[in-house]
Amino acid sequence: MPANSRETTLRDLARLRRVRDRIDRDYAQPLDVDALAAGIGMSAGHLSRQFRLAYGESVYSYLMTRRIERAMALLRRGDLSVTEVCFEVGCSSLGTFSTRFTELVGVPPSVYRRDSAGEAEGIPSCVAKQVTRPIRNREAPSGGDA
After folding, report:
1. d(CA 71, CA 81)
2. Which pLDDT tens digit goes with each residue over 45-97?
3. Are the C-beta atoms of residues 103 and 95 closer than 8 Å to each other?
């Protein structure tokens, strides 16, 4: 690989990491590919292609996974309604939130809230986050009664 091409690839990877870090930090804010791309001086199409190549999923999918992870933690606490959690994590549509939550976790958010309240009590939050992390890059197996 020519040196110039390698430098471009490394520069793109560094910019992609900045996008991923921003999503991790600002998941509850309104984020879209155009704004993220503008923030790193890339076109939206180039960001989308490069992000998928580097991380195996779309920018939107990565953002929604972050939001669902945070929603799971809030639902386990049990003190917020599903609607409150939806808006707290930055989703603007309860329907989209519920659909994506169900795809990633395998059960609707209301069922998750009911069945997992207090589940991680006494477990350090860093361990609970790892144990309860939603499935990424594929949908959860569908259950017959969900």
Report:
1. 11
2. 999 999 999 999 999 999 999 999 999 999 999 899 999 999 999 999 999 99
3. no
Residue type, 91: C
Under 8 Å between Cβ of 136 and 57: yes
Alpha helices in 27-144 (DSSP H): 33-40, 44-55, 59-77, 82-88, 94-105, 109-116, 125-131
Residue among 106, 118, 108, 69 nearest 90 (CA)? 69
Query: What distance in Å separates the CA atoms of residue 131 and residue 73, rounded to the nearest whole number?
Result: 11
Structure tokens at 31: 């984020």
Beta carbons within 8 Å of 9's beta carbon, 6+ residues apart: 1
User: Residue 23 and residue 26: Cα distance in Å, rounded?
Assistant: 5
Identify the three-state secondary structure at position 75. helix
Radius of gyration of the chain, Cα coordinates, nearest whole angstrom:
17
Q: Residue 1's pLDDT band (boundaries 50, 70, 90)?
A: very low
Under 8 Å between Cβ of 134 and 104: yes
